[in-house]
Structures are given as C-alpha cells and as structure tokens.
Amino acid sequence: MMSDYYGKNKKKPPSPLPFSVARVNLIDAPYSLDKTYDYYIPEPLTDSIKAGGFAVVPFGGGNRRQIALITEISDHTDYPEFKLKTIYGPVENSVYLTPEQLSLCVYLKETTFCSMGEAVRTIMPSAALSSVSEYYEIAETPPMDSDLTTLSVYSLLSKVGPVTRERIQTECGDDAYRKLPQMIKKGYITRQTEIAGSASVRYQTFYSLAKDTDSIKEDLKTIKRRGAVRQAAVLEALLECPESAMTSVELRSMTGAAASVLKNLTESGLLKEEKKDLYRDPYAGQMPEPQPDDNVLSP
C-alpha cells in the first residue's frame, strides 16, 4: 500500500503482465452479455491482434466460436490469470476500424444504449460480418514422424490446398479431426479464419514486391540457402512480373505456399499486401438466353 499527500492509503498499481491481453466485445452478444472480456494473446499472434480489428474467441462453457471486436491491447487484467482463455486468432479478410470509428462505436453504445455489435453494424456494410469460415492449410514444417493419420492430412492439404475441418474428418477420419490441434502445435499445419461476405461483396488480398528486383534477387539467395522453399517460390513467381500484383489465391495455387508464408514475407519487408473490396453482380451469369422470334412480318 502507498500513501498519498493526505495520508490516505491507495492500492499499488499492478505490475505489468509478461504477456499481452486483448480486451474485446462480442459482436453477436445480447445486451445482457454485452460487456468487455479479456483474452490471453499467445506470442505468435501478438503482431496480428490489434485494436480495431476482429478476432475469433472461445466463449461460454462450450467455448463456442464468436466474432469479437478488439477494443484495446493491454498488459493488465482484472481477471485471474489462470481463468484467461486464449484468443483463437484474427479474422482474415476483415476490415479494421480506425481509432475514430472505434471511438464512435463506444459513443453510440454509451449514449444510445445499443450493444457494441449493433454500433459496429451501424457504421459498417451489412455484409462485412455476415459469417465466419475456418479452414486448414499446410505450414512450412513438413511432418517428420511416421504417423499415418498425420501424413494423410498433410497429403490432402498438399494436393487440394486449404480445406475445412469437415472435409478433413470426411476424407481422413475422426482420428485426424481430433489430431488437428496437435498438428497445429507441432507446426505442420495452420488454421485460418476469415469472414465470408454476401454474394455481392468480397475481400481479396493482393501481393507485390516491396523492393526493387535486384534487392529481391539478393534476398532470394539467402532464402534459398536457408532452405525456405515456399518463400523462394513466391518471390520467383512475383519476379516474373515485378510490376504486377498477384492475389493470394494465385500465389498459393502456383507455389503451394500457405498463408503464413505470405505473412512472413510481408513482415520481413519483402512483399507489400493490399486488400481490396470486390463488388460482384449477384445475377452475373444468370441472364436468360435470347429466345428465337417466331413472328414473321408480312411483306
């Protein structure tokens, strides 16, 4: 305890935690549960979890997956540390709220008695937070053990690319489904979560070289010496058209690289990432074919 100038005791400020905490509000929480919740941020996610972004968190006794708005990153919490749940990860292809938009959401919640989710949807497109999809893809580390179940999952992801856990369970069995968390922990695969918009709105990520070609070629030599095959393949693909950008889907299908590979290259300053809203016509391809005209004009 410390004493102030008037002799009154006041609590000593808590010591900073050795880890970061995400303070969030659930997007779909009813008004009775609309409050701030704290979640532990594991070290690999510290750079991707930011205030104003959206994340997937476990909530309730069944740890149901919920979309949450990250309102603050802190090194303190009022919850017992052992009760903090771990945040699942950021929502890919989602928008970020600016500090002004985040403050506006808080203002709307406090002055109009709406929920935080209602405030967010007031200032965002209705399709931006429609649903969440989850899929798995291979990581940089290939499996080194002889577990047939692990090898079957890795083989499936290598052949067809990112797949849902339902497909893994269907094609590789229930045992493979149960081993997914263990495979993620060992670094064999990664789990990605993204917001799937409506038929008329979609977010697509484009990548381009962040340096001139001579510098990239020098970095490429170092990457090849390290044995980072996927990273090298991505850079070589972009070097073939250095003035153009390629979508994440194009790069991953051409090189077999996981989303984590593109993220690492971006964080290393080798790639530039740009997200664009793609607006599509929901009726495209559904126009009726012209019918022959049977009416014959008289001469």
Write the layout of secondary structure elements.
Layout: E1 2-3, E2 9-10, E3 20-26, E4 37-41, E5 54-59, E6 64-74, E7 85-86, E8 89-90, H1 99-112, H2 116-123, E9 131-138, H3 148-160, H4 165-172, H5 174-186, E10 189-196, E11 201-209, H6 213-226, H7 229-239, E12 246-247, H8 248-255, H9 259-267, E13 271-279
Parallel strand pairs: 4-7
Antiparallel strand pairs: 1-2, 3-4, 3-6, 5-6, 5-8, 9-10, 11-12, 11-13
Helix pairs in contact: 1-2, 3-5, 4-5, 6-7, 7-8
Looking at this protein, list some descriptive labels.
299 residues, alpha+beta, GIY-YIG endonuclease, 3 domains, three-stranded antiparallel beta sheet, 33% helix, globular
Question: What is the count of DSSP helices, taking H or I runs of 4+ residues?
Answer: 9
**Uncertain runs with pLDDT below 50, 5 residues or more?**
197-201, 280-285
What string, H for helix and E for strand, traces the elements in order? EEEEEEEEHHEHHHEEHHEHHE
CATH C-level class of the largest domain is Alpha Beta
Distance between the termini: 107 Å
